[in-house]
Design goal:
- This protein is α/β, with parallel strands linked by helices.
- It has a single domain, classed as Ribonuclease Z/Hydroxyacylglutathione hydrolase-like (Metallo-beta-lactamase, Chain A), CATH 3.60.15.
- About 30% of the residues lie in helices and about 20% in strands.
- The strands form two sheets. It has a seven-stranded mixed sheet with strand order 1-2-3-4-5-6-7.
- Strand 11, helix 7 and strand 12 form a beta-alpha-beta unit.
- It is globular.
- The structure holds zinc ion (ZN).
- Zinc ion binds next to loops.
């Protein structure tokens, strides 16, 4: 099996991969072997987690969080981490059920969330927001969008089921609700709610308790709309206690999600006030960083990049 490193090299996405997690291009990209798939953890009845590792630790990084949901009809994966993990998914699922993987829900297009789609049996049904399908199906691939993975014969791994605002899958205790509330991390982010478990996979609309990476450059994300989209999610989703965030290796709470939403609204307000006052963008970013942000570990580069994006109307 080829290493994920080789996969990225071939597609020329190393710098994009580094950018995604806000690291500078260092030895990190060139030294480590492909990281081991994490163990499968039960987090609710019929619901399991293949946890995201720390994306700053390249030696253990496998991509974003994957939720594994066992239904009567088969196994549903929410997101498929980096390229190179198809067989590992099949092996981990076999540890908890004899049922095959029949469906993948991609929260968005990025290579660390849809990387192994095309290594799963081609009988799977892929489900995503219609804008994510469009991002995946582009003829010209932007960095990190992973659309190279869906060209030619692999077009069969493009989402077959899409939706616009909301869609429910399965019923009764197996019900899964998909929500899209507008542009944010990309143009096609899905919030996935497991009804019976009262859990929600947020994709990268909520990555960790950090300033998020926002892909306004390549995938239609919006730093200006991000906070409003989060507020719509807080108002529009109910019955959720626990959060599977895009890149947190532990479960977070609904309260963490609302705290993060408040943080992002505070950031938007700071940007608007800075613009109105004629404050230089870097000074506005530094002023936001100088504030107290309890519970957050903040990447200053992202604050500057996202502040610039809001100033630029992106
Ligand atoms: Zn992402």
């Amino acid at each position: 099996m080829q290493s994920w490193k080789a996969g990225f090299r071939r597609r020329g996405s190393v710098s994009a991969a580094i950018m995604l997690v806000g690291l500078s291009l260092t030895a990190a990209a060139s030294q480590q072997e492909r990281a081991a798939m994490p163990p499968i953890e039960e987090i609710a009845e019929n619901l399991y987690l293949l946890a995201a590792s720390d994306s700053a630790d390249r030696a253990s990084w496998t991509g974003g969080n994957t939720a594994v949901f066992v239904t009567e009809a088969g196994v549903v994966l929410v997101d498929t981490k980096l390229p190179g993990y198809g067989q590992d998914f099949i092996g981990r699922v076999r540890e908890v059920t004899d049922k095959p993987i029949t469906m993948v829900i991609n929260t968005h297009t990025h290579f660390d969330h849809s990387g192994s789609n095309n290594e799963l049996p081609d009988t799977i049904t892929v489900v995503a927001h219609e804008n994510t399908r469009a991002n995946m199906a582009r003829a010209e691939c932007n960095p990190v969008t992973n659309c190279e993975a869906f060209q030619g014969e692999n077009a069969k791994y493009l989402p077959r089921r899409t939706y616009t605002e909301r869609m429910s899958l399965f019923s009764g205790p197996e019900q899964i609700d998909l929500y899209h509330f507008g542009p944010g991390h990309t143009s096609g982010d899905t919030f996935v709610v497991f009804r019976a478990a009262r859990m929600m996979h947020t994709g990268d609309m909520f990555q960790t308790m950090n300033m998020p990476f926002i892909d306004f450059a390549n995938s239609g994300g919006s730093a200006s709309e991000f906070a409003r989209t989060l507020s719509k999610a807080v108002a529009g989703v109910s019955g959720v206690d626990a959060i599977i965030a895009g890149h947190s290796n532990t479960l977070l709470s609904w309260e963490d999600f609302t705290t993060f939403t408040g943080f992002m609204n505070g950031f938007l307000d700071a940007a608007r006030e800075g613009m109105e006052a004629g404050t230089a963008v870097d000074a506005a970013a530094d002023a936001f960083l100088a504030r107290d942000h309890p519970g957050f570990t903040i990447d200053p580069q992202r604050v500057h990049a996202n502040m610039q994006a809001i100033y630029d109307g992106q």
